[in-house]
Amino acid sequence: MSGASPTSIESRAEQLDTIAAVLPIDRRDKLAELLTDQDVETLKHLVSEGMGENTLRALTSDLAYLEAWSLAATGNPLPWPAPEALLLKFVAHHLWDPAKRQSDPEHGMPAAIDHALRDSGFLRAVGPHAPDTVRRRLANWSTLTKWRGLDGAFASPALKSAIRLAVRAVPRPRRRKSAKAVTGDVLSQLLATCGGDSLRDIRDRAILMVAFASGGRRRSEIANLRKEQLTVEPPVTGEDGSPLPSLSIHLGRTKTSGADQDEVVYLTGRPVDALNAWLTAAKIDGGSMFRAIDRWGNVSRRALDPKAVNDIVKQRVKQAGLKVGEFSAHGLRSGYLTEAASRGIPLPEAMEQSRHRSVQQASSYYNSATRRSGGAARLIT
Questions:
Q1: Measured between alpha carbons, how far is 135 from 153 in angstroms, rounded to an integer?
Q2: What's the pTM?
Q3: Distances in Å between the alpha carbon of 99 and those of 75, 103, 123, 170, 211?
Q4: Domains along the chain?
Q5: Rounded distance, CA 118 to CA 111, Å?
Q6: Residue 10: helix, strand or coil by DSSP?
Q7: CA pair distance 305, 311, nearest whole angstrom
Q8: Alpha-carbon distance 219 to 239, whole Å?
């Protein structure tokens, strides 16, 4: 796609192999074809500097998209630093008015560029991009520019004005990542769909229970969990006096943690049993915990893609007879706090497990649960 020689592409693929642990390596060959030698060197540098894994994956994904867009729009790889005109072109191609597009086919992203990006698998959205997506990609573009020791035009008044006017022209309602929270009752329905003894049932049951019980972990955190992050803890005494198995999960750096902070969450009881059942059935004694299973029942050596975690949730939602569009993997995160609020668990205790840093964000789930069941909502019963 970039016109690079087979030798240089193979060399970049080998370089990407050295940082495979923190990149979507299932797309290694595509990245090697698309990214430039300098792109790969920049990514290796960011790894050596200790950039968080999730942040690096997001940055790599955006860099690949930007390179694909530049090739489709200009016929050349991204220039460093990018001129202001190219930044404005990027905004114009991604933030546009669908109503105006009907009367002016040239408005927004040209059809040829749209088709090129779709054919290569980089463009899936129909219509203009979400403003937050455009801002994030521009921010990552700016970050990469700075890491190369260059200055860009990302703070130019013209660029800021273009984004502001484009967003104002086509207002978009703010949507939750998951329309509904996966609370305890919903989770029970999902678990009922994977009560069998097949490998998929055992794996999916472990994913759902671990993701929820560990504080509503993000799908990327679940997909990237490794056996080495687990520590067996002393049993916890249950309400009936019986011992319950306990594990700690060392998350390392997360989206909201500090640079040198090792986030730790705990599992107790049934989620531990579910996880151990999967590790035993899949014969996993090290490396990635949650992996793909092929049609013949073979367990892959590679970790699940974060998108696959979301697909598993939606598949189980469908099997449970619920509306697929109303739930997603993020619903496990919001559902954990919502359920904790409903059960009267103090907010600080729930936040210790969910690892939320913002009291305002976490308390919104508590406020909703309290208001729904409180006296103010039940003046007439």
A1: 14
A2: 0.56
A3: 29, 7, 21, 9, 41
A4: 6-169 (no CATH), 184-376 (1.10.443.10)
A5: 10
A6: helix
A7: 10
A8: 31
What tens-digit pLDDT sequence spans the chain (381 residues)?
A: 445 555 565 655 555 555 554 455 455 556 656 677 777 777 777 766 666 666 777 788 888 899 999 999 999 989 999 999 999 999 999 988 888 888 888 888 998 999 999 988 888 877 888 888 899 899 989 988 988 888 889 999 999 898 888 887 765 555 555 568 898 899 999 999 999 999 999 999 999 999 999 998 988 899 989 999 999 999 999 888 899 999 999 987 555 544 445 688 999 999 999 999 999 999 999 999 999 998 889 999 888 888 899 999 999 999 999 998 889 898 898 888 888 888 888 877 878 887 877 676 666 665 555 555 555 445 464
Q: Own/partner pairs for 69-78, CB < 8 Å, 24+ apart?
A: 69/93, 69/113, 69/117, 69/122, 71/1, 71/2, 71/34, 71/116, 72/112, 72/113, 72/116, 72/117, 73/113, 77/2, 77/36
Type of residue at 279: L
CA gyration radius for the chain? 23
Using CA atoms, how far apart are residues 140 and 134, in angstroms rounded to an integer? 10
Q: What are phi and psi of 149, to 5 degrees?
A: 75, 25
